[in-house]
């Protein structure tokens, strides 16, 4: 069903036609300058404190973080992590130019394929679009270079996050998405899917017992790339 057909069905259900021009103008203005909601004070801190808050919140939610100085450190960090967790040195990797451009030759035992996730994948490597310090959340909008299946199917999810892409509050992450995901055809910005991941998947629905890996990865490991000098000051 086309977009016009869907909108037409909604209008018929609401028993109304096109919006008056003044209401259209009001909606366009709201979309151009979204109103700010209450932003928690805990995220209004210095850059080093924001990064520390992000790390603390990831760990509080049963994830783990390793800070690395540059992309050259990624292979060793992944090899060491997988060995420590008794995981195979194989993973599905997002077909992201940044990840594909890494020199993996320093760890020849690592095996990977750049593709979407499959049901039998055990480990995945993804790259976050942004991250949110106030809750330790990763923003993962779907894209050809960021397959959503890599966030859901593997048992162990590894995610590369640049410190320069960590913001204090959710509103700032959405600002980045609006600014950088412009569609030349429609002028819009929203991808098909935006996953907000806070720690590994878990549920306490059954007898109030916490179960990790209930709806997705059982383990979440963040590789935090320290590429923001302001975030390192005084740390």
Please tell me about this protein's structure.
By secondary structure, the protein is α/β, with parallel strands linked by helices. The chain has a single domain (46-232), classed as 3-Layer(aba) Sandwich (Rossmann fold), CATH 3.40.50.10420. Helix content is 31%, strand content 21%. The protein has helices at residues 3-14, 21-32, 47-60, 74-84, 97-100, 149-152, 170-180, 229-232, and strands at residues 64-68, 90-93, 111-114, 123-127, 130-132, 137-141, 156-162, 166-167, 194-197, 202-203, 211-212, 219-225. The strands form 3 sheets. A 6-stranded parallel β-sheet has the order 1-12-7-4-2-3, with helices on both faces. The protein has a 4-stranded mixed β-sheet with strand order 8-5-6-9. Strands 10-11 form a two-stranded antiparallel sheet. Strand 5 and strand 6 form a beta hairpin. It starts with a helix and ends with a helix. The model has no long low-confidence stretch (mean pLDDT 89).
Summarize the structure.
It is built from eight helices and twelve strands.
Index terms:
235 residues; alpha/beta; Rossmann fold; six-stranded parallel beta sheet; four-stranded mixed beta sheet; 8 helices; 12 strands; globular
- The number of E-state strands comes to 12
- Helix share bin: 25-40%
Please state the second-level CATH architecture. Answer: 3-Layer(aba) Sandwich
Category by helix and strand content? alpha/beta
Distance between the termini: 54 Å
In the CATH hierarchy, the third-tier topology is known as Rossmann fold
- The CATH class is Alpha Beta
In DSSP terms (H or I, runs of 4 or more residues), the helix count works out at: 8
Number of domains: 1
Radius of gyration, whole Å: 20 Å
Shape: globular
Mean pLDDT: 89
CATH homologous superfamily title? NagB/RpiA/CoA transferase-like
Strand order, sheet with most strands: 1-12-7-4-2-3
Report the sheet with the most strands, covering strand number, pairing sense and barrel closure. Answer: 6 strands, parallel
Give the helices and strands as they follow along the chain.
HHHEHEHEEEEHEEHEEEEH
Instruction: Name the poorly predicted regions.
Output: none
Protein name: Lactate utilization protein
Pfam family, one: LUD_dom
Domain LUD: 123-225
């Amino acid at each position: 069903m086309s977009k016009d057909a869907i909108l037409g069905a909604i209008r018929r259900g609401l028993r109304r036609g096109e919006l008056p021009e003044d209401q259209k103008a009001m909606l366009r203005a709201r979309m151009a300058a979204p109103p700010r909601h209450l932003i928690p004070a805990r995220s209004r801190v210095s850059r080093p404190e924001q990064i520390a808050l992000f790390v603390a919140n990831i760990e509080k939610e049963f994830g783990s973080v390793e800070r690395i100085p540059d992309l050259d450190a990624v292979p060793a960090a992944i090899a060491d992590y997988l060995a420590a967790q008794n995981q195979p040195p194989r993973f599905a990797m997002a077909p992201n130019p940044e990840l594909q451009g890494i020199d993996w030759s320093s760890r020849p035992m690592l095996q990977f394929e750049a593709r979407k996730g499959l049901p039998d994948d055990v480990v995945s490597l993804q790259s976050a679009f942004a991250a949110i310090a106030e809750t330790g959340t990763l923003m993962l909008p779907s894209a050809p270079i960021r397959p959503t299946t890599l966030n859901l199917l593997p048992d162990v999810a590894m995610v590369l996050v640049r410190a320069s892409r960590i913001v204090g509050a959710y509103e700032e992450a959405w600002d980045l998405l609006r600014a950088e995901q412009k569609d030349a055809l429609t002028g819009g910005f929203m991808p098909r899917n935006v996953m907000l991941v806070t720690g590994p998947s878990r549920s306490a629905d059954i007898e109030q017992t916490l179960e990790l890996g209930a709806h997705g990865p059982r383990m979440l490991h963040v590789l935090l790339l320290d590429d923001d000098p302001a975030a390192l000051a005084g740390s």
